[in-house]
Predict the 3D structure of the following.
Amino acid sequence: MNKMNINDLQRFQHFKELTSNELQALAQHLEPVNFSAGHELFHQGDAGDCVYLLAAGQVEIRVHVPGHDDQVLSNLGEGEIFGEVSLLLHEPRTATALATTDIQTWKITRAAFQTAVKQREAWAIELLIAISKALAQRLTTVDQQLISIILDMKEDGHKPQSVKAHELEQLRNRLFTQWSF
């Protein structure tokens, strides 16, 4: 995968509405990067400066939980985008990405993305909307899981003021303050 074909970009749901000229503008900012199965693209805690568009293959997203095995958050396939938090925040990577098969990706750097957003390029706005939707969906999922945990704790006879309930409430508050749009 050396040369970018705008037809390849149309496989990504996020870019289906872009015109040929807009897809061509996006293609100019993409760098092809291929990885072998087993390669770690980035590690939780690493500095992040790009997002990946998965053109072919499978990637596993996992997080390290101290004192436990890594937890798999998601398995991604062709047409998916990952590493997007690094485009928005100058924060360490929040998860680890591992190629579970040989993969072909294109990457967009934070600098290219931020410049394109400032210039109001259509592809950057579409990517920003896609990232916003993905993060909103993740937050909704976390909220549902948090509510389920709290209800399970109450059913098991834990008092709402227990240490675990207090920790969950702190997590909820952090999510709402740090993930606000």
